[in-house]
Write a structure and sequence with these properties.
With 87 residues, the chain is of the alpha+beta class. Helices cover 26% and strands 29% of the residues. It has a single domain, classed as TusA-like domain (Translation Initiation Factor IF3, 2-Layer Sandwich), CATH 3.30.110.40.
């Protein structure tokens, strides 16, 4: 893997989406909601669907996808949280 940005939060999605657990997208959305704009979030995803959903959602809601890199069976996604929309 190349040089990765320094992250303020690390979120591993292993086991997400189990029958009684939060979905991977719920976990990402909740994690970003608790932090400030400009902070970097490192998300470790395990399926193509997780990577696709997270990166598309982030772009749609004003978060910046800094890098996406696969290593072994994991994909490392670095997101920079966007500023909240003005009310």
């Amino acid at each position: 893997m190349g040089v990765m940005p320094a992250a303020d939060l690390h979120l591993d999605l292993l086991g997400s989406g189990d029958i009684c657990g939060d979905s991977p997208m719920d976990r990402v959305r909740n994690a970003l909601a608790r932090h400030q704009g400009g902070q970097v979030h490192h998300v470790i995803a395990y399926t193509y669907e997780q990577v696709f959903t997270i990166t598309r959602w982030a772009a749609r809601y004003g978060h910046r996808v800094l890098t996406v890199e696969s290593a072994d069976l994991r994909t490392h996604i670095y997101l920079e949280k966007g500023a909240p929309s003005p009310s």
